Write the structure tokens for this entry.
Amino acid sequence: MRIKTAILFYVILSALGLLCHFAYGWIGADILKIFFPRNESIFEHLKLLVIPTIVIMIIDSIMYRAEGFQGYVFGLLVAMVFMVAAHYTVTGIVGYSIMAIDIIIFFASTFIIMYYRYKKITLGNMTASVIMLILILAFVEYFTFYPIEIPFFLAPQL
């Protein structure tokens, strides 16, 4: 993958993530909670990374014959951990969530995904990457329907 393509995919990935943020509210169909965040919880916002990454991964696989699949999966895993850790670090220091910082964290997370893809940083082999992607999807989808009553899964109270 050339740098220009990586930058284009970063822009598309970020734009898809932003669209995903509002899609559930725009359409409102309950089934869409599988793909899009339905509230403002940190957990639900992980879907802003997962679903767009899968879309970009499919496009990239068609263009480059699955060359970067492993980089996407590892980048997604690292970006999800980064998003949660960065949000809670900022919130812990300041005492409340700052939307502008959360948006910057989102863009940094999408950058991480594309960086890992571009540099081909992986978990090791294709089997490990497929298993990790399945585990990520299982985690996101299970807790979408069966969230635990802790702040990570709950929308913030204003």
